[in-house]
């Protein structure tokens, strides 16, 4: 059904009825940092049923330490903390013990003589991270940053003498690049050009710093800073505008490796390819010309003998290793199908650690021996005592949407989690899980929620990558920009059509779920397809783009305008007023659950409060949940567990009760 048709008969009726609707009484409950409204008591049997699924965990590689151990991020209690593992399947020794999660973990290089790591930590999810140094010998922790600004992207020089990071300390709006002499801990700014800048790599001699200005997912500008003079030189961008992802010096300190979608020989490039360029000799190579997909990330061994990169091929990550300097590919063992997270070479360059995540296994760290071609598992994260053999692996489907490409219907990729052993003739309820970003991409990763829905509730989950998602080329990425925003909502309408054509799916019992921009998509889908969607869960979602842009943190505002449009432009403001769910709240008649973190710097909590109030004006008993110690999502286990249980209760009451 088209968006226009979705508005016709029902919209006028609902608009008239809403004027007479009585807002139901609000049952508000405050327990510690949790504020809930209209959320019923969670039945103990549901809590017990969920318990094992909520006690799965993963482990992520964060760096090698000088003693041959590795730094790992994982959660044993409430939040993700730093741990150390010293051998395959060895004990995980917890190193940090904070009530807030730690992030941006990174170890000091071997040449530095330092024995420790850097980490970031905020307060209550406000994302004003402070960087700290943890000394592994003394176990002392030292604050490196100002204690107030937003600090991120820590980077050591190859000899460890200098340390770079990005910070809003200068004016609270622009993200500058700072460099510190690590021995004296004296910081100085090296890039104050305005905008959002990151340090990418120090030259081997420590005299130059590769930097990048990020404007949007489709636009970045690379450059180099002479650290003695402070001179910034921006490199020319072929075509004038392109995306860059990764920027590193070659081991010789002259050439560079980078990922870009700049035009090649005058022809547009849809995907980000790994490239090599030596400005001194003019030598230029495209190293992944034969891979028609994006290169997501790469790393270079400190001994200069190998380069590893990951390509994202239709949502499946694939690892590649090249010998340097000749760029010959190295034969690798087969890896599980899934996603590859953080990875890095050992200090001696002989091993490569990588984080692997599959649909049926949470993230764990494996180590590849480059000479022998063998793969060793270093961590085995718990799956709550569940039988992993019963986990459901999704299949990749493609469904047609409303527009065409080269005379044929455009297709939208989606991962389909289908319960096993479904009795003949039984139709499955469906939850559509929509990612945020909007430039993110859903991957076939381990999802305990999808596993619970499939194995315990008999619910299918569809995870689409609607237009605007990354991973499918820059044309696809741009299809939802600015005034084309609702075209991505039409992709959800097309998915509803596809569901109706599947004999095993129940088109009368479809729910939508999403966070951040995915939360906007939930609200917009409920607004446009009220008779086709039975319930929706919106987590930290945008309810009006104008109020969102006015109230998001200053350092983010221009970045989001580059994607969504500028609310100061009268024409764009009119588009926002037309498409925002807040202004169409009278059309949202299905049960709604809104969840939010009070300290969210990205999507302020006011976005949640205003949509809850507006939809309650329709007479809907909207569920509302907010945590005063969380930000853009729920990072603390107890909070996430309660939200997860409340969500399952919501689906049980409003999705699984049969057709209306």
From TrEMBL:
Keywords: Hydrolase, Protease, Serine protease, Signal. Gene3D superfamilies: alpha/beta hydrolase, TolB, C-terminal domain. Coiled coil: none annotated. Pfam families: PD40, Peptidase_S9. The keyword Hydrolase applies. Residues 1-21 form the signal peptide. The keyword Transit peptide does not apply. This is S9 family peptidase. It comes from the Bacteria. Residues 445-655 form the Peptidase S9 prolyl oligopeptidase catalytic domain.
């Amino acid at each position: 059904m088209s968006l226009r048709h979705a508005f016709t008969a029902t919209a006028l009726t609902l608009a008239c009825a809403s004027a007479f609707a009585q807002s139901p009484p609000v049952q508000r409950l405050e327990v510690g940092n949790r504020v809930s409204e209209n959320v019923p008591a969670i039945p103990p049997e549901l809590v017990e049923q969920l318990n094992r699924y909520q006690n799965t965990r993963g482990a992520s590689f964060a760096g090698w330490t000088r003693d041959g151990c590795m730094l790992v991020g994982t959660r044993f209690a409430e939040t993700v903390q730093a741990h150390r593992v010293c051998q395959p399947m060895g004990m995980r020794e917890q190193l940090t013990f904070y009530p807030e999660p730690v992030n941006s973990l990174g170890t000091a290089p071997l040449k530095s003589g330092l024995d420790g790591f850097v980490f970031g930590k905020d307060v209550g999810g406000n994302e004003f991270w402070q960087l700290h140094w943890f000394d592994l010998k003394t176990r002392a922790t030292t604050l490196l940053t100002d204690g107030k600004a937003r600090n991120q992207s820590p980077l050591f020089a190859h000899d460890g003498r200098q340390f770079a990071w990005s910070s809003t300390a200068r004016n609270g709006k622009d993200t500058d690049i700072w460099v510190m002499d690590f021995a004296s801990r004296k910081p100085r700014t090296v890039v104050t050009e305005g905008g959002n800048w990151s340090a990418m790599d120090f030259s081997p001699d420590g005299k130059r710093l590769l930097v990048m200005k990020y404007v949007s997912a489709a636009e970045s500008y690379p450059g180099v800073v002479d650290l003695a003079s402070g001179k910034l030189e921006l490199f020319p961008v072929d075509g004038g505008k392109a995306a860059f992802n990764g920027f590193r010096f070659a081991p010789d300190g002259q050439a560079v490796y980078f990922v870009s979608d700049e035009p090649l020989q005058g022809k547009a490039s849809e995907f980000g390819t790994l490239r090599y360029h030596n400005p001194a000799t003019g030598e230029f190579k495209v190293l992944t010309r034969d891979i028609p997909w994006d290169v997501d990330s790469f790393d270079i061994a400190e001994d200069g003998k190998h380069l590893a990169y990951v390509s994202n091929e239709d949502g499946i990550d694939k690892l590649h290793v090249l010998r340097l300097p000749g760029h010959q590919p190295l034969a690798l063992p087969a890896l599980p199908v899934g996603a590859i997270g953080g990875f890095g070479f050992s200090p001696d360059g002989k091993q490569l650690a990588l984080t692997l995540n599959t649909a049926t296994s949470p993230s764990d760290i494996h180590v590849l021996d480059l000479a022998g071609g063998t793969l060793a598992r270093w961590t085995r994260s718990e799956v709550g005592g569940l039988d992993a053999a019963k986990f459901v692996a999704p299949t990749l489907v493609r469904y047609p949407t409303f527009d065409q490409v080269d005379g044929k219907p455009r297709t939208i990729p989606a991962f389909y989690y289908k319960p096993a052993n479904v009795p003949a003739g039984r139709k499955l309820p469906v939850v559509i899980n929509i990612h945020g970003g909007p430039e993110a991409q859903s991957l076939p990763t381990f999802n305990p929620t999808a596993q619970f829905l499939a194995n315990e509730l008999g619910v299918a989950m569809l995870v689409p990558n609607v237009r605007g998602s990354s991973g499918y080329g820059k044309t696809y990425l741009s299809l939802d920009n600015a005034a084309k925003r609702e075209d991505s909502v039409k992709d959800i309408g097309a998915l509803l059509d596809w569901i109706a054509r599947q004999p095993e799916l129940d088109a009368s019992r479809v729910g939508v779920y999403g966070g951040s921009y995915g939360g906007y998509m939930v609200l917009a889908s409920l607004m446009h397809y009220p008779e086709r969607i039975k319930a929706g869960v919106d987590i930290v979602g945008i309810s009006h783009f104008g109020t969102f842009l006015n109230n998001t943190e200053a350092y983010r505002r221009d970045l989001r305008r580059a994607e969504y449009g500028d609310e100061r432009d009268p024409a764009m403001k009119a588009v926002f007023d037309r498409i925002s769910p807040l202004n169409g709240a009278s059309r949202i008649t299905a049960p709604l659950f809104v969840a939010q973190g009070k300290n969210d710097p990205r999507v302020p909590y006011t976005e949640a409060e205003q949509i809850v109030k507006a939809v309650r004006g329709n007479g809907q008993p909207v569920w509302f949940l907010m945590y005063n110690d969380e930000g853009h999502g729920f990072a603390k286990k107890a909070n996430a567990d309660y939200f997860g249980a409340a969500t399952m209760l919501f689906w049980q009451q409003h999705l699984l009760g049969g057709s209306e």
